[in-house]
Write a structure and sequence with these properties.
With 263 residues, this protein is mainly alpha-helical. The chain has 14 helices and 3 strands.
């Protein structure tokens, strides 16, 4: 009976639907014993089986059954199960790790493996952005930033936070528009971090994002302050593209202000 309980608990920790190969890799039982336990669960109609072993997959008959099984895990060793699942996915299922980084992020989060979880939430955000799924990217970056906030203060933490805050701001611009009130504070925070870390390249493009956000909101006085800083940073660089971008900003502000001659 103990084996049966562990199989159903581990299955519930993986998710409502799972592959036999993943369960077998994460389970500590011999395969013959695992298959016997799965047969019992299928006959009891707790699980449905699709396909034949070893390529079979299983699904809990009802989400409530999975939830009940998972709640029983919470009383014992949820972190162990989730860490085992995440580690198996990372080492033995590289395709899943590459295409579904959010799955590993969730398991590492539940396993309280904070640094690993942050890494995969960041990867999940990047992958979603590459697919133009910006709302998903926002969710992934925010989950990662919640974990970053639990780390002790350090330059490393600032760097991690910066690496997720900048793309979060970009995703918010794309998904919710340049005038969305939630976007400005994200770039403001990114500016603080970039100045603290001492990264002029990142700071330049953060300031550009702050400038664009305020421009669309017609906050032209703040835009003038920002483009002055952009010009100062560009003047210290040898890359002419920085100078081009920096000089573009004040002329757009002049145009929006109605000063067409200056623009």
């Amino acid at each position: 009976m103990a084996s049966n309980v562990e199989v159903v608990q581990l299955s519930a920790a993986i998710g409502r639907e799972f592959s036999y190969k993943l369960l077998a890799a994460a389970c500590e039982l011999p395969e013959a014993e695992l298959q016997a336990e799965l047969d019992k669960l299928v006959r009891a109609e707790l699980l449905f089986q699709k396909g034949r072993l070893p390529d079979a997959s299983y699904i809990f008959k009802h989400a409530l059954i999975q939830d009940s099984a998972y709640q029983s895990v919470l009383k014992k060793k949820p972190q162990q199960f989730h860490h085992r699942i995440a580690t198996v996915l990372e080492r033995q299922f590289p395709d899943v790790a590459a295409t579904q980084p959010e799955l590993l992020a969730k398991h590492f989060t539940e396993a309280a493996s904070t640094e690993n979880a942050i890494e995969y939430w960041s990867k999940a955000g990047q992958r979603s952005q590459q697919q133009s799924a910006n709302n998903e990217a926002i969710s992934h970056y925010r989950r990662g930033l919640e974990l970053v906030a639990t780390l002790p203060e350090s330059p490393q933490r600032d760097g991690l936070e910066l690496s997720m805050t900048v793309p979060l701001g970009v995703a918010m611009l794309a998904a919710r528009g340049y005038a969305n009130p939630e976007t400005g504070p994200v770039f403001d925070r990114a500016r603080v971090l970039a100045e603290r870390v001492g990264d002029p390249a990142t700071l330049f493009y953060i300031l550009w994002g702050m400038w664009a956000w305020r421009l669309v909101r017609s906050d032209l006085n703040e835009c003038r302050k920002l483009y002055s800083t952009l010009l100062d940073i560009a003047a210290k660089q040898t890359d002419p593209s920085w100078t081009c971008e920096a000089h573009f900003a004040p002329e757009v502000v002049n145009y929006y202000a109605g000063d067409f001659a200056a623009s």
